């Protein structure tokens, strides 16, 4: 039953990714005062399926000077890691009551950078390699801040169980107590998923297409699916941790939609940051604030117990 439930879940996640891309293109078109996709089907509703057919029917590159085995396997590896994260999705026949759920999330999110690292290296392209180096430095830096935020919450709850976020927030959202932590975690999620204004591994203006320059056809589609699946799952984690975590109600999914819309809104509103400013924000602002919050939670723990 668990396997069947997981397969149905992944199917719906993939469909949601397709329509999330349609939403992104429509919202960006509205922000930039132009027409989004509207010709394929009624108001462009069939555009995702048209894009998928076009993408999978394209020719796949054969690289003579790259490591072909790693080149072909790494996009699939990234997709598998993203699918593994969805085992924590709140449902009846899954591991939502898994006592080490938050630890599982930390481990899987730490694996995400390996897909970009190895696929860029196997491409044997200068642009891909520069995008790879940027992405590794960015991911390692922001993982430190993200894990410290999660460690604050783990320390406060004395557990890795994701169900605690639901029980603790029955009467009050953690967003009220830890609003700076929420903003820091949201920024770290943007950096981890390589979204604007932190999309340095995909810097089109200076790196052609970044780490995925040499990818096309189904290989590129796996990278694309991985990125958008991660965005949807990170929205779920943010809502679960800070906005009530009431995953039995429809309001939970509405809040997820608002967070997903926030990703698109930020992309349409902010230009790409300078790389030195990206690192400065992480090490000089986010890290001290998360460490100060750790001492605040330590005092609260002493007062409570």
TrEMBL record:
<keyword id="KW-0520">NAD</keyword>
<keyword id="KW-0999">Mitochondrion inner membrane</keyword>
<feature type="transmembrane region" description="Helical">
    <location>
        <begin position="140"/>
        <end position="158"/>
    </location>
</feature>
<dbReference type="InterPro" id="IPR001694">
    <property type="entry name" value="NADH_UbQ_OxRdtase_su1/FPO"/>
</dbReference>
<dbReference type="GO" id="GO:0003954">
    <property type="term" value="F:NADH dehydrogenase activity"/>
</dbReference>
<dbReference type="GO" id="GO:0009060">
    <property type="term" value="P:aerobic respiration"/>
</dbReference>
<dbReference type="Pfam" id="PF00146">
    <property type="entry name" value="NADHdh"/>
</dbReference>
<feature type="transmembrane region" description="Helical">
    <location>
        <begin position="61"/>
        <end position="83"/>
    </location>
</feature>
<comment type="function">
    <text>Core subunit of the mitochondrial membrane respiratory chain NADH dehydrogenase (Complex I) that is believed to belong to the minimal assembly required for catalysis. Complex I functions in the transfer of electrons from NADH to the respiratory chain. The immediate electron acceptor for the enzyme is believed to be ubiquinone.</text>
</comment>
<dbReference type="InterPro" id="IPR018086">
    <property type="entry name" value="NADH_UbQ_OxRdtase_su1_CS"/>
</dbReference>
<keyword id="KW-0472">Membrane</keyword>
<dbReference type="GO" id="GO:0005743">
    <property type="term" value="C:mitochondrial inner membrane"/>
</dbReference>
<keyword id="KW-0812">Transmembrane</keyword>
<comment type="similarity">
    <text>Belongs to the complex I subunit 1 family.</text>
</comment>
<feature type="transmembrane region" description="Helical">
    <location>
        <begin position="6"/>
        <end position="23"/>
    </location>
</feature>
<dbReference type="GO" id="GO:0008137">
    <property type="term" value="F:NADH dehydrogenase (ubiquinone) activity"/>
</dbReference>
<keyword id="KW-0813">Transport</keyword>
<keyword id="KW-0830">Ubiquinone</keyword>
<feature type="transmembrane region" description="Helical">
    <location>
        <begin position="95"/>
        <end position="119"/>
    </location>
</feature>
<keyword id="KW-1133">Transmembrane helix</keyword>
<keyword id="KW-0496">Mitochondrion</keyword>
<feature type="transmembrane region" description="Helical">
    <location>
        <begin position="278"/>
        <end position="304"/>
    </location>
</feature>
<feature type="transmembrane region" description="Helical">
    <location>
        <begin position="170"/>
        <end position="191"/>
    </location>
</feature>
<protein>
    <recommendedName>
        <fullName>NADH-ubiquinone oxidoreductase chain 1</fullName>
        <ecNumber>7.1.1.2</ecNumber>
    </recommendedName>
</protein>
């Amino acid at each position: 039953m668990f396997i069947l439930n997981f397969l149905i879940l992944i199917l719906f996640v993939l469909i949601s990714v397709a329509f999330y891309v349609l939403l992104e293109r429509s919202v960006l078109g509205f922000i930039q005062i132009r027409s989004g996709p509207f010709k394929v089907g009624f108001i462009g509703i069939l555009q995702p399926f048209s894009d998928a057919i076009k993408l999978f029917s394209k020719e796949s590159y054969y690289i003579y000077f790259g490591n072909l085995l790693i080149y072909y396997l790494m996009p699939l590896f990234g997709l598998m890691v993203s699918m593994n994260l969805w085992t924590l999705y709140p449902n009846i026949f899954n591991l939502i009551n898994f006592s080490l759920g938050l630890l599982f999330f930390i481990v899987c999110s730490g694996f995400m950078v390996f897909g970009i690292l190895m696929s860029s290296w196997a491409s044997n392209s200068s642009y891909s390699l520069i995008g790879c180096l940027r992405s590794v430095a960015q991911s390692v830096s922001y993982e430190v801040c993200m894990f410290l935020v999660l460690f604050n919450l783990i320390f406060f709850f004395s557990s890795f169980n994701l169900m605690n976020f639901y029980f603790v927030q029955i009467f009050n959202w953690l967003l009220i107590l830890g609003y700076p932590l929420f903003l820091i975690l949201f920024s770290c999620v943007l950096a981890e998923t390589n979204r604007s204004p932190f999309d340095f591994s995909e810097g089109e203006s200076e790196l052609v297409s970044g780490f995925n320059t040499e990818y096309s056809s189904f290989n590129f589609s796996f990278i694309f699916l991985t990125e958008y699946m991660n965005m949807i799952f990170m929205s779920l984690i943010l809502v679960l941790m800070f906005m009530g975590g009431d995953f039995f109600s429809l309001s939970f999914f509405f809040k997820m939609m608002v967070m997903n819309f926030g990703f698109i809104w930020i992309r349409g509103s902010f230009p790409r940051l300078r790389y030195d400013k990206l690192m400065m924000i992480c090490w000089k602002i986010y890290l001290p604030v998360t460490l100060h919050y750790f001492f605040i939670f330590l005092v609260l723990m002493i007062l409570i117990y």
